[in-house]
Design brief:
With 995 residues, the protein is α/β, with parallel strands linked by helices. The chain has 30 helices and 39 strands. The longest helix has 23 residues.
């Protein structure tokens, strides 16, 4: 490593794995003296043209002096980083600190010259862009604020790397050289560029796993049975369209086939590329397999093998070694201990999982960290009988197992662009990077619904093998923040499927008004009550009586859908006996035809013991217009996520349902089958026997099943149907609100620089501290937050003196921790009008609760009467900064009635925040009381948000109580905690989780 003359130890924290533009990975690390041979070998593989661009002259080889210079760094003024694959350099970058005139310098000089060299074979993979992000972060850490680079005009690729980075820059041309200078402070544009590159790279890395052109199953047993042999059969029987290979090192040399699949003893023996390897060998043999795959150029691994972090500390270390080993070769991993992956697209048809049947194709993306839950979800989506039924299936399925590498965040990146996925369902047992998940979820939810159920949420312990950042926020708070990001949070996997099928089949409701009709008065009333419980606005149920015919249902549903005062319809149906009663098929067709005529509103069916009706509702016999050509006008562009089903126009804009008439019914549902040309629709109607046929050639090509956009979901219980509808209503409202999120207002009286000076001065005394009363008042005052004056009263005479200073009437309060904010215990005396009352109150307090030094009494001027509230802000190392609001006292402490928003909070979010708590009516004139000054309260919330957002060193703020009167408010008590801000990896360079 570095010599004793170097000024700094080797900075191991600069090491990182990154995903490149094509989905492969590379390792970024500092260059050391041990890299001399690697550097020389790397340079020999660079073209003469690239060498010329780097040194501005022919430079065929590096001299010994060059090698010494490029491998000896002090990691402060001279730094070099390399991108490596398989342990070998593929690119380098270095900076040298310079002073005035471009001469070498040391701190406090804050400018450096930067230069890159990328191997020609790896140009175009985004290597230089990734290295620029990392070398810029290193430079900022070392006090460098600006980079300068000189580039030949013909080196357009490198000029583009600098120009596209998004930093504030200056460009000049002199002596035949382009000189670029740019500040390294992240900007909104540089972060947007970074996020866009991250999205493309991670989405591509998942695409390589889910859409492989060739698959090798490693560990296929010689005898039937076993995991490897089962997965091989599942891939083959699903009709995988690519090349499939069986690999087992124990196979006889003469054996070249296994179960009709080409077989070999090693991946190395396969003639041609292998995109994906499914690894099923025992854990102790996996390292050998990874080496073989890496050397053969395999792009990704699905590791089914167990015995890693799921088996204890030794297995956890084995898992870390697995990830490091795979990344050495640029491969990504799903697993280990994974259930597998599925892609039902007609162009792929990959069932590389333990599921014995290929799931029915559809428009739902499914991610599960648990294999057992994954099985349950696939089964529920696949069944046609019982529960929620129908032909809606999955587009892709990923079971991440121990989630050592590929996570839900990566899959979200893929689903965002995937034209075959309209709804995303996720079962999560942990969220490794909540801040990033929230960011990705907000973006995804803006174009397609994202439904999440979280397991292990009350145990407080993440499943073994999951690398999870500690969060101090309660689960309820994290859930509220996810809902703010547009995530549809549900409690059970049953709710997950219920909501997913509704969102995949029906348009989003324009509001909460629900019409209820059916042939059972009792079932209608149950549905009505369920709507009220879920916060919907139901119309009185329409009872068609048990004698209702299919025509009666059609007419009633048509009238309800045409009613402008109705946003959704729930149809209830029970079995009937007698002449004229509706049969299952006839009733289903009547409902579908009525819904197809008014495609802008969702329709749900609650059925009781009508298995045939659920089957019929899902059957592909709709009379709705069909997409007849891949070039039909209503076809949705595969490259326009905003045009997919999750973005039905009537759901996002305030337009009426008629706005979609030109594309009815194909463009209204959460499914938009026309967007998939001939792939999804015809597959949706296949039977399990058809989906298991051995090869695509055995099925009629391009079969177009007559399926309309409106597949009406059927539910066996009113509560389940209404709960799913309520989730859809809330999500649709979020979509409308997200279209106009509001703004973060500017306040002229905020002194940001003054506050920064105070914070720096306080932190100079220690790493973390809670400010004193006066210090808190001074800091909050810089942001226009004024705390009601309170003076200490250690003796009765001090209390009287304080009251004279403040002016009567006053309040006497005990501020000891066990009495603070506990007026119910009698530690507060209000409206003390004179000295006599004050002294009497002082005596009462000390007699009841102890000596003054234990009570810490203070005297405070009386504030106008109002409603006591509490405002809190906290920076969580995992979830980020959050602002919380509730009423003070029992409502918050006992009922947990708090609302939360991510910081920075906009004006619209502040408005919704104070109205989100269950006790909000107390603020707005409940039972004849005077409404509070909500505008003043919203302004206070916005000022606290600005303080925490502007100064991440403010890690906690509590204002309690805040008395909100009919005019104005009073902050009676406040506390502020300062600490060095938690690391913000979302502001740093792109990296994969470290192992």
């Amino acid at each position: 490593m570095q010599t004793s003359s170097d000024r700094h130890e080797y900075p191991a924290h600069w090491e990182a794995d990154v995903v490149l533009r094509d989905g492969g990975t590379a390792r970024v690390r500092p260059i050391t003296v041990d890299d001399a041979e690697r550097l020389v070998s790397f340079y020999e593989q660079v073209s003469d043209e690239s060498k010329y661009y780097r040194f501005f002259a022919p430079y065929p080889r590096l001299s010994a002096k060059d090698v010494h210079r490029f491998t000896h760094h002090d990691f402060v003024d001279r730094v070099g980083l390399a991108a490596t694959i398989g342990g070998e350099f593929i690119a380098t970058v270095r900076y040298d600190r310079i002073g005035a005139g471009g001469t070498p310098a040391s701190a406090p000089a804050d400018e450096a010259e930067v230069a890159f060299l990328v191997q020609d074979a790896h140009q175009g993979r985004g290597v230089a862009s990734a290295l620029l992000e990392h070398i810029a972060a290193v430079a900022r850490e070392r006090g460098i604020r600006r980079f300068a680079a000189e580039v030949l005009p013909a080196n357009t690729k490198m000029i583009k790397v600098f120009m596209d980075a998004g930093y504030t820059q200056k460009r000049s041309f002199e002596d035949g050289v382009v000189r670029l200078e740019f500040d390294l402070e992240p900007t909104d544009r540089s972060l947007a560029v970074q996020y866009a590159r991250e999205h493309r790279a991670e989405a591509r890395s998942v695409q390589r796993l889910l859409q492989p052109g060739s698959v090798a199953v490693i560990g296929t047993g010689r005898t039937p049975g076993g995991v490897g042999r089962s997965i091989l059969g599942n891939i083959r029987d699903a009709g995988y369209t690519g090349r499939l290979y069986a690999v087992n090192k124990a196979l006889p040399e003469a054996q070249k086939e296994l179960d009709g699949v080409p077989a070999c003893r090693s991946v190395r023996e396969i003639d041609g590329p292998v995109d994906l390897a499914v690894v099923t060998v025992p854990a102790e043999h996996v390292p050998e397999v990874v080496t073989e795959c890496g050397e053969h150029g395999v792009q990704g691994l699905v590791v089914i093998s167990a015995g890693y972090a799921d088996s204890g500390p030794d297995g956890r270390e084995r898992q870390r070694a697995l990830v490091r080993h795979a990344r050495t070769y640029g491969m990504r991993i799903i697993g280990p201990n994974a259930f597998g992956i599925v892609n039902t697209s007609a162009q792929v048809r990959l069932n590389a999982s333990l599921a014995p049947e290929m799931p029915r194709p559809g428009r739902i993306g499914l991610f599960a960290q648990s294999g057992a839950i994954g099985i349950a979800l696939l089964s529920r989506l696949h069944r046609r009988g019982g529960g929620v039924t129908g032909v809606t299936g999955v587009s892709t399925f990923v079971s991440s197992g121990n989630r050592a590498d590929v996570s839900g965040n990566d899959v979200l990146q893929y689903w965002y662009d995937d034209p075959e996925t309209d709804v995303a369902l996720m079962y999560l047992e942990s969220i490794g990077n909540p801040r990033k998940f929230t960011r990705l979820a907000r973006r995804t939810a803006a174009v397609k619904p994202l439904v999440v159920v979280q397991g292990a949420r009350h145990g407080g312990v993440a499943p073994q093998g999951h690398a999870v950042r500690a969060t101090r926020l309660p689960h309820a708070t994290v859930s509220a923040l996810l809902r703010q990001a547009g995530v549809i949070r549900v409690e059970t996997i049953t709710d997950l499927v219920d909501a997913g099928l509704l969102l995949a089949r029906q348009p989003l409701p324009a509001g909460p008004r629900v019409a209820i009709l059916g042939n059972s008065e009792s079932l209608g009333l149950l549905t009505y009550d369920a709507c009220l419980s879920e916060g919907l606005r139901p119309h009185s149920p329409l009872d068609l009586t048990t004698a209702a015919s299919a025509d009666d249902f059609h007419a009633a549903l048509s009238r309800a859908l045409a009613d402008d005062t109705c946003d959704a319809v729930v149809v209830t149906a029970i079995p009937t006996v007698g002449e004229g009663s509706a049969g299952d098929a006839a009733l289903a067709e009547a409902l579908r035809s009525a819904a197809a005529a008014e495609p802008g509103k969702p329709v749900l069916v609650v059925h009781v013991e009508l298995g045939g009706l659920a089957e019929a509702l899902s059957a592909a016999t709709s009379t709705a217009p069909q997409a007849t050509s891949a070039t039909a006008p209503q076809a949705t562009s595969a490259t326009a996520p905003q045009a997919t089903a999750g973005t039905a126009p009537q759901a996002t804009a305030g337009t009426a349902p008629q706005a979609t008439a030109g594309t009815a019914p194909q463009a209204t549902a959460g499914t938009a089958p026309q967007a998939t040309s001939n792939t999804a629709p015809q597959a949706a109607s296949t039977t399990p026997e058809e989906s298991r046929s051995p090869a695509p050639a055995q099925r009629p090509p391009s079969v177009q099943a007559p399926e309309g956009a409106h597949l009406i979901p059927a539910y066996p219980a009113a509560e389940r149907a209404v709960r799913a509808l309520a989730q859809a209503v809330a999500y649709a409202q979020w979509r409308r609100d997200a279209a106009d999120p509001g703004k973060v207002p500017e306040y002229e009286d905020i002194d940001e620089k003054g506050a920064a000076g105070l914070i720096a001065g306080h932190l100079a005394r220690g790493q973390g501290l809670t400010l004193g009363t006066q210090e808190t008042c001074d800091l909050l005052g810089r942001y226009g937050i004024h705390v009601h004056r309170a003076l200490p009263a250690p003796t009765p005479d001090d209390a009287v003196a304080a009251a004279r200073t403040i002016g009567y009437p006053v309040a006497l309060k005990a501020t000891a921790p066990h009495l603070r904010h506990r007026a119910d215990l009698g530690g507060v005396r209000l409206d003390l009008a004179d000295e006599e009352q004050l002294r009497r109150a002082y005596t009462e307090l000390t007699e009841l609760f102890g000596k003054p030094e234990e009570l810490r009494p203070v005297v405070q001027g009386m504030a106008p009467r109002g409603v006591d509230t509490v405002v809190r802000a906290v920076i969580d190392p995992a979830a980020g900064a959050a602002l919380s609001f509730g009423l003070a006292g029992a409502a918050t402490q006992l009922l947990g009635d708090m609302a939360h928003r991510l910081i920075p909070v906009t004006d619209r979010e502040a408005t919704s925040l104070i109205r989100s708590i269950r006790t909000a009516p107390l603020l707005f004139g409940w039972r004849g009381s005077a409404p509070v000054d909500s505008a003043a309260l919203e302004e206070l919330l916005l000022r606290v948000s600005r303080l925490v957002d502007d100064h991440p060193e403010v890690v906690a703020v509590t204002l309690e109580p805040v008395v909100v009167a009919s005019r104005g408010l009073s902050v009676l008590s406040a506390s502020v905690r300062l600490a060095p801000p938690p690391a913000r990896d979302d502001l740093g360079p792109r990296t994969l989780p470290a192992y």
